[in-house]
Amino acid sequence: MPKLRIGALPDDKPVKVTTELPASVHRDLVAYAEALARENGQRIDPAKLIAPMLARFMATDRGFAKARRAGHSGGGEG
Could you tell me if residue 6 is inside a domain? Predict the structure, then answer.
């Protein structure tokens, strides 16, 4: 099995966000959590994968990094 991109999850103080996901995305999160459990024995609630996946996505998005460096953080101004 290939190495998964999400490893051990850090223990960090969360901020509560409520959102709706398409059923297909939820099924994929459940499947990813199951694969993670098989790979490293760490059973995790699929919802706990959302934050590290978003963080990884934003960290590797070159357009976002460029906009951030230019001072356009997307803070809702305009």
Answer: no
Domain annotation covers residue 51: yes
Placement of tokens 């999400």 in the chain: 6
Domain presence at residue 53: yes
pTM over 0.85: no
70 vs 7: CA distance, rounded Å: 31
**pLDDT tens, position by position, 37-50:** 999 888 989 999 99
What contacts 9, CB < 8 A, 6 or more positions away?
42, 44, 48, 52
**From CA 53, how far away is CA 47, in angstroms rounded?**
10
Asked if the structure places residue 50 within a domain, the reply is yes
Distance CA 26, CA 19 (A): 12
Instruction: Supply 15's token pair.
Output: 């901020």
Residue tagged 């969360």 (tokens): 14
